């Protein structure tokens, strides 16, 4: 169902400066009547500079967008709340301006509105629990993930995020990626396109790749891990992946939106173009300037509804061709 595009790019940094990145693969849908799209979108240890994402002119997700959450496997209510509150915060009204107020989750999401079409206004849709794991503990294939997303509901104006628990294997989690986004076709004549994504809880599977900087990286400069803002390496790490994938999904939902270069299978997207960057002054191994919660010592860069804190990845800003950081 998927091919791996590994090894296309050689690391540009010496090994100690390797920047490991969130890797994203666009999965193909496994729906019987669809033409399968096989479109791996994988990132390795390279960030060419400067990055320009080209607008390939295809449809983006704009206007009202519902994000459904499918929790596959066992998550605690606290973990689900971290994720659901993040989605609820994306298009929340701006709080009254206050001096020295930290950046909001909504201000982070607003960078996606600088892309053609003005961005999407996100509302949290259904939250579906599949605690008994209808397709087993895994390893789930890309086709399984597509089937789960499809079953959760697919229509224009909705994206289903399939979130897998820490003990659910998704092949090949860790090897090269922490999540993926994809697209499928449904409807009476297979003409309706829909987009979906998958992000895994990285607490037990490659936290160094998928929960950095809350966990030590597998390679490169070793700094002490940061304290996650919600006290949960898995949930806070999964939010980083979910955030990156949502930004990639709305700005390149069908493989012909914004991505680097001309090879739809290999291009960097809105967040993956800025992998490893969370605050200003980031360099390989250092996430950049962040805010610190004085009570817990946790690192964050955005605040959502109810004052909940998050660490969110930098996004590529099409008006400046730079990675935009919040702090
Ligand atoms: C989008 O959602 C808002 C808030 O729910 C609603 O007021 C508006 O009419 C919707 N717009 C469209 C085009 O459906």
From TrEMBL:
Keywords per UniProt: Apoplast, Secreted, Signal
GO cellular component, one term: apoplast
Domain of life: Eukaryota
Sequence similarity: Belongs to the EXORDIUM family.
Keyword Secreted part of the UniProt annotation: yes
Protein name: Protein EXORDIUM-like 2
Compartments where located: Secreted, Extracellular space, Apoplast
InterPro entries: EXORDIUM-like (IPR006766)
Provenance organism: Panicum virgatum
Pfam families linked to this entry: Phi_1
Keyword GTP-binding on entry: no
Leader peptide range in chain numbering: 1-36
């Amino acid at each position: 169902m998927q091919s791996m595009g590994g090894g296309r790019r050689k690391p540009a940094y010496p090994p100690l400066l390797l920047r490991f990145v969130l890797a994203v693969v666009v999965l193909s849908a496994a729906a019987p009547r669809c033409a399968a799209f096989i479109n791996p979108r994988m990132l390795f240890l390279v960030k060419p500079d400067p990055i320009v994402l080209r607008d390939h002119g295809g449809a983006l997700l704009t206007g009202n967008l519902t994000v459904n959450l499918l929790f596959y496997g066992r998550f605690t209510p606290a973990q689900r709340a971290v994720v659901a509150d993040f989605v609820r915060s994306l298009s929340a009204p701006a709080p009254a301006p206050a001096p020295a107020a930290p950046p909001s989750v909504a201000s982070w999401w607003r960078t996606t509105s600088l892309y053609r079409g003005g961005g999407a206004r996100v509302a949290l849709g259904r939250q579906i629990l599949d605690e008994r794991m209808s397709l087993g503990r895994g390893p789930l294939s890309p086709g399984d993930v597509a089937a789960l997303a499809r079953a959760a509901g697919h229509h224009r104006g909705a994206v289903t995020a399939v979130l897998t628990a820490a003990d659910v294997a998704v092949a090949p989690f860790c090897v090269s990626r922490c999540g993926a986004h994809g697209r499928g076709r449904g409807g009476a004549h297979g003409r309706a396109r829909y987009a979906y994504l998958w992000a895994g809880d990285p607490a037990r599977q490659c936290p160094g790749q998928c929960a950095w900087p809350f966990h030590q990286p597998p390679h490169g400069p070793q700094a002490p891990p940061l304290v996650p803002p919600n006290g949960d390496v898995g949930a806070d790490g999964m939010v980083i992946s979910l955030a990156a994938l949502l930004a990639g999904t709305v700005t390149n939902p069908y493989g012909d939106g914004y991505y680097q270069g001309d090879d739809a299978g290999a291009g960097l997207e809105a967040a993956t173009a800025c992998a490893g960057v969370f605050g200003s002054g980031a360099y390989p191994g250092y996430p950049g300037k962040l805010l610190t919660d004085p009570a817990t010592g946790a690192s964050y860069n955005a605040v959502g509804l109810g004052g909940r804190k998050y660490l969110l990845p930098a996004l590529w800003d099409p008006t400046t061709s730079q990675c935009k950081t919040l702090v």
